[in-house]
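Known limitations

Structure tokens in this collection are predictions and should be treated as such. Users comparing against experimental data should check residue numbering before alignment. To illustrate the layout, the record for Large ribosomal subunit protein uL3m is reproduced below. The input appears on top and the generated tokens appear beneath it.
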Amino acid sequence: MSIAGRNSILLRTLLVDFSNLRLSPATQQIREYYHRPKLRNPYWFVRKTRAANEDNLTAENQDFIKERVHDKFGPPAIIKGVSTYQNAVQSLVKAEEREKVEWSPKLRRTGVLARKIGNYPLWLKNGKKIHTTLLHVVDNHVVRYIPPEEYKPTQKPTVHDVSKYGCLLVGAESTDPSLLTKEYCGLFKDSGVMPKKHLARFLVSPEAALSPGTPLNVTHFRIGDFVDVRGKTIDRGFQGVMKRHGFKGMPASHGVTKTHRRGGNIGAGGEKGRVWPGTKMPGHMGNRYRILKGLRIWRINTKYNVMWVQGNCIAGDTNSMVYIYDTILPLRKPQISPPFPTYFEDESEEALPEEIWYETVHDFKDPSITFAPES
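Generated tokens:
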């Protein structure tokens, strides 16, 4: 037999062997995990957590360290099953040091970080049912302000002229500094607040700048105002067209077999016989940031810093973090001055009520049926 014939036989044997190769389920899961597209942090993000090694610490020493942390930064608070630390200093900005700036619709305020804690229905006074999402503003403080001349965005900005906006770094959920790296704790060195688990950056006008250490609560917004909520969708992995794009599926007739959940034809014929860009096809679903714009605030609880926001399809799973800021929709921007640059609780003013309802929402403490007096 010639050398070419032997090579052809060997090649066919190798092809048959590779065609019969099957991967184990564990190996398939590892391949899917590493081939999954990820939202990677920018290069300027520092490592947050460190490898805690407590082999040389006894149980008594661990309790002693926790007591020292509590004595310095206050007792821990449990927020939706998550242990956090409330800073003993509520505000590092005195009332005399605040600059009084007149608000205008062109000015841009900061936003807050909140935790999505579930959905809940409300009823209007006319009997209509509305769906809302509960967002918990957890322990927000201003960490740093970057003026417009020093701020250099690393990603494509969402505004037309970014040179006239500064950047406000906001942190949420204080945590034990011993669990974090030295570089990450250095971000909070000059802020006067505890290191935070979550950080967010908001574009603000120079007139709306806040000093480091300023607390941000749910009173930063008002009932009836419209906000935009940005969150990361649930990671669904690789999905077909029926789950990813809502296809109905092919009919179980006309001789169709084993293709009931497929996408069908994906291209045209003739001169344009190709697959057009943007065609809905199977692929990775979720794990992407999405923004819902123009959501009304129906109810606010000032005691627990919870707001009821319109809709039940805010991106993210339960207990995930979302960004909340004033809406950019021109017809839903506030016409009356909101708390600018944020709400400050002064001693001279009266305390806000614990529950604040929108005027058209039915308060269940009020009677649902009223009787007219007899004439």
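For this record: Residues 108-235+286-357 form a domain with the Elongation Factor Tu (Ef-tu); domain 3 fold (CATH 2.40.30.10). Confidence is low (pLDDT under 50) at residues 13-20, 78-83, 86-96. Please report discrepancies through the issue tracker.
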